[in-house]
């Protein structure tokens, strides 16, 4: 059996190696696929903080992904059309600068997570799952009916946004940005897990009654975990929109929320590298099975079913021989 | 805005709510008895609609189509319960969500594989098509009126089943204490399969009934499923009475909000902006309703107090 630390190192190294090899043998599409995997992994790392540490089964994380995407879409849309954003008395110019867009994405999704968290955390268990799902639908339908920003058709951004010192139009440089963001998020998660904050959350997940008996109030910590989680997923949304240069209501769709959980479960819930392995495998499957059959979701469904029924710890669970945290 | 339009819209909302009730009743029954959250319930709705459309296409009989929808969905439900769901009763909610999400993928893509991506059509039979004149001179489609009637009959039947029959006693006992009724000699795994198949059959029936006014296509089940979740969150999980009242509330809010919110906003906004804001708000209305209910009563209107 392999130690989890080694797996993490191998996974991240392999993740970096594939696009570099692709650069050498001049396969730019592979770099784009790797970027896609890195961004999806980032979104799932965000969810993993709520799900793996906090035990909050959110089936509505696409809200934050979509908000991040629309933060980028709206700012860049105003910048490319030279129309300022009118917010009542406030007038803001659109921007193509990634740092500003990212900051906006993080703030907006953190704020949404705060409101949604305040409401949903009043409940637990199945109610929590259904409520987060319902909030996801609320944003989905709102984005469809909001025709100022494309409604159902979404928004196209013609040129990728800029980052100081990096040429984002070169695939490998954009990959570098996304991969760095992923590594930072993984670092944040590992620090969180080891901190007192993480320990209390862990205990509240495992034995809620005991945690309350010793005088802990996990509510505020769960809310904080939910906010951090939403913010990271929001950042991933902004990057995802930039990768595709397109935002549409599908970024809010509940299927996406489901897929984010799937990414985590394939790799291993609560594991640091779980979402990374999960999304690498997901993008690979999507690419190769998708080439081979139009109906690749059947196979994804079967794999998922087998993992849920027979391999609770996901791939890292199989490799380390340990189940991992139970949610 | 005339009174006739208002009454028509209320009837539309009622019809929508009653169809949601057929979905929500199955979901809430399955959750109440087995403690299972079933995302694949929408797939069974779709299975029912497809079964009905194929049988109606082959035989031309709408009644046969409904019977087919009911039976095929019940069988599909029973098979799914025996093969997969049975292993999930003791599992965590996360596992239930994932396994039933996997089932959605398998059902949806499987249906697309068999029937293709193009929607099928299920026609309203001639004896139910056309409008009827209600007291007060309101013309209303007979089919939609029939849907309201059928839904109310099903609600009555469900009440009779749970309150007045032996099976119903076992179901209610199972909700309260499953170990005890197993110890008293009730075959609990058979009971579970039965409840699941019953829920599936109701979903299939709803799919077929709604399939005649909308198109029958892959993915038709999920939007309804999520609204049905909203319904049982509002009504309280496990309560059939809550499901009925929640469903009618959601149906009315959704339908009336879409019509009246833009009109209401036009009173103090310019017309274009009012339509825009109104329709955006209306699409969120049921979720806002849900949030309000939750702030007021975290376990729903008729849910068990913790």
From TrEMBL, chain A:
Keywords: Cell membrane, Membrane, Transmembrane, Transmembrane helix. It is found in: Cell membrane. The chain crosses the membrane at residues 7-25, 37-57, 62-80, 100-119, 126-149, 169-188, 223-241, 261-283, 295-319. It is a multi-pass membrane protein. It holds the Pfam family BPD_transp_2. GO terms for cellular component: plasma membrane. InterPro entries: ABC_transp_permease, LivM-like. One of its GO terms (molecular function) is branched-chain amino acid transmembrane transporter activity. This is Amino acid/amide ABC transporter membrane protein 2, HAAT family. It comes from Cognatiyoonia sediminum. The lineage of its organism: Bacteria, Pseudomonadati, Pseudomonadota, Alphaproteobacteria, Rhodobacterales.
Automatic annotation (TrEMBL), chain B:
GO terms for molecular function: transmembrane transporter activity. GO terms for cellular component: plasma membrane. It is a multi-pass membrane protein. Its main location: membrane. The chain crosses the membrane at residues 20-41, 61-85, 97-122, 142-162, 191-213, 225-252, 273-296. Coiled coil: none annotated. It is found in: Cell membrane. Signal peptide: none annotated. GO terms for biological process: amino acid transport. Pfam families: BPD_transp_2 (PF02653). Keywords: Amino-acid transport, Cell membrane, Membrane, Transmembrane, Transmembrane helix, Transport. Belongs to the binding-protein-dependent transport system permease family. LivHM subfamily. This is Amino acid/amide ABC transporter membrane protein 1, HAAT family.
């Amino acid at each position: 059996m392999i130690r989890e630390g080694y797996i993490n190192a191998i996974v991240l190294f392999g993740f970096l190696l594939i696009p570099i090899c692709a650069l050498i043998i001049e396969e730019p599409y592979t770099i784009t696929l790797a970027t896609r995997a890195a961004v999806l992994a980032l979104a799932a790392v965000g969810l993993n903080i709520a799900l793996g540490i906090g035990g909050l089964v959110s089936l509505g994380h696409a809200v934050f992904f979509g908000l991040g995407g629309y933060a980028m879409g709206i700012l860049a849309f105003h910048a490319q059309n030279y129309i300022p954003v009118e917010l009542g008395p406030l007038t803001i110019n659109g921007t193509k600068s990634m740092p500003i867009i990212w900051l906006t994405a993080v703030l907006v999704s953190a704020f949404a997570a705060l409101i949604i968290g305040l409401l949903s955390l009043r409940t637990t268990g199945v109610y929590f799952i259904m409520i987060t799902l319902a909030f996801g639908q609320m944003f989905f339908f709102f984005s469809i009916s909001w025709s100022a920003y494309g409604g159902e058709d979404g928004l196209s951004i013609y040129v990728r946004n800029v980052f100081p010192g990096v040429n984002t139009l070169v695939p490998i440089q954009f990959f570098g940005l996304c991969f760095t963001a992923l590594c930072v998020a993984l670092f944040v998660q590992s620090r969180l897990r080891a901190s007192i904050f993480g320990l209390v959350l862990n205990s509240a997940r495992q034995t809620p009654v005991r945690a309350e008996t010793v005088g802990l109030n996990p509510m505020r910590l769960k809310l904080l975990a939910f906010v951090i989680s939403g913010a990271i997923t929001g950042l991933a949304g902004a990057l995802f929109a930039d990768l595709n240069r397109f935002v549409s209501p599908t970024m809010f769709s509940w299927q996406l929320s489901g897929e984010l959980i799937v990414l985590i479960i394939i790799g291993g819930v609560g594991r640091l590298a779980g979402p990374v392995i999960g999304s690498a495998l997901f993008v690979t499957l999507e690419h190769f099975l998708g080439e081979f059959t139009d109906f690749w979701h059947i196979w994804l469904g079967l794999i998922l079913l087998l993992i849920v029924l027979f391999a609770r710890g996901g791939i890292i669970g199989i490799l380390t021989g340990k189940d991992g945290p139970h949610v | 805005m005339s009174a006739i339009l208002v009454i028509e819209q209320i009837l539309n909302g009622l019809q929508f709510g009653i169809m949601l009730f057929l979905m929500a009743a199955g979901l809430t029954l399955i959750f109440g008895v087995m403690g299972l959250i079933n995302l694949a319930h929408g797939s069974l709705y779709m299975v029912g609609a497809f079964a009905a459309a194929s049988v109606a296409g082959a035989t031309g009989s709408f009644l046969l189509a409904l019977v087919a929808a009911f039976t095929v969905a019940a069988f599909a439900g029973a098979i799914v319960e025996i093969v997969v769901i049975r292993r999930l009763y003791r599992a965590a909610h996360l596992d239930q969500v994932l396994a039933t999400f996997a089932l959605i993928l398998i059902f949806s893509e499987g249906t697309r594989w068999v029937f293709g991506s193009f929607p099928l059509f299920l026609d309203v039979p001639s004896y139910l098509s056309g409008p009827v004149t209600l007291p007060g001179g309101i013309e209303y489609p007979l089919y939609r009126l029939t849907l309201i009637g059928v839904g109310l009959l099903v609600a009555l039947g469900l009440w009779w089943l749970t309150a007045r029959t032996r099976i119903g006693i076992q179901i209610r006992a199972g909700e309260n204490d499953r170990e005890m009724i197993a110890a008293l000699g009730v075959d609990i795994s058979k009971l579970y399969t039965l409840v699941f198949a019953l829920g599936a059959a109701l979903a299939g029936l709803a799919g077929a009934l709604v399939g005649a006014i909308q198109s029958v296509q892959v993915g038709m089940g999920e939007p309804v499923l999520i609204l049905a979740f909203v319904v049982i969150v509002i009504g309280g999980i496990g309560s059939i009475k809550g499901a009925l009242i929640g469903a009618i509330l959601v149906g009315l809010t959704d339908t009336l909000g879409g019509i009246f919110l833009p009109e209401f906003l036009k009173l103090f906004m310019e017309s274009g902006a009012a339509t825009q804001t109104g329709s955006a708000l209306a699409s969120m209305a049921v979720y806002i309703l849900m949030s309000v209910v939750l702030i007021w009563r975290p376990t729903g209107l008729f849910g068990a107090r913790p």
